[in-house]
Amino acid sequence: MYSEKPKIPWGALVVAAAVLVFGCIILATLVIPRLIQSAQQTTENPASTPQPPKGSIVVDIASSNTKEDWMNAVVAQFNGENHTLASGEAIFVQVSHVTSGGSQKSILDGKIQPVVWSPGDQSWVDGANQTWHDRTGSLLVPDVCTPTVYAPIGFAMWRPMAEALGWPDTPISWEDIVRLSSDPNGWETLGHAEWSQFKFGHTHPDFSNTGLLMMTALAYSIEGKTSGLTADEVYAAEVVEAFRVLEQNTYHYGIQNRPLMQLLAQRGPGYLHAITSSEAEVLKANAEFADTLRYSLVFIFPAKGTYWSEQPYCILDGEWVSEQQKEAAEVFRDYLLAPAQQELAITYYLRPVDESIPLHAPLALDNGTDPRVTRSTVPTLESPSAEVAAAVKDVFHQTKKKATIIMAIDTSGSMEGEKIGSAVASATSFVERLDVNDEIYVLAFGGDGTVYLLGGGRAGDVSETLSRTLGGLYANGNTPLYDAVCQAVDLSNQLQSEDLANDESRLYGIILLSDGMDTASQHTQNQMFNCLPSGESVEGVKIFTIAYGKDADADLMLRVANRTNGKTFTGDPESIESIYNAISAEQ
Question: pTM for the full model?
Answer without folding.
Answer: 0.76
